[in-house]
């Protein structure tokens, strides 16, 4: 017997939102990712400044797509009881395609990196994306 309470339905909807967001990420579909975000989305990245708004998110994604090819695997989504917060843990399987300023030279290195993201949800959309990973581990993998 499944739980059809409003709380359970809200949690299921939030989990589906996060899974759909990551499915779009894995397809390289930035436009669909943007559809899942609030207009004033806050985007906090590991080792970077806070960005706010969809256009800054789009610009960040363009830079990332240029420099990296990544696929997220083994995604586990956790949702708070009130469905306004979520977290996802996953493994990033990537290729470093083009050199990012201040980082080692890119020569097509492959890497696998555990990572996680925290989300705030508002009105059925993602209002905050905060991602963490171990930069030292990534540098060790790509610097050889």
UniProtKB/TrEMBL annotation:
Domain SnoaL-like positions:
18-129
Q: Which InterPro entries match?
A: CHP02096 (IPR011721), NTF2-like_dom_sf (IPR032710), SnoaL-like (IPR037401)
Q: Which domain of life is it from?
A: Bacteria
One Pfam family from the UniProt entry? SnoaL_2
Under the heading SUPFAM superfamilies, the entry gives:
NTF2-like (SSF54427)
Protein name (database record): SnoaL-like domain-containing protein
Name the species this protein comes from. Answer: Hyphomicrobium facile
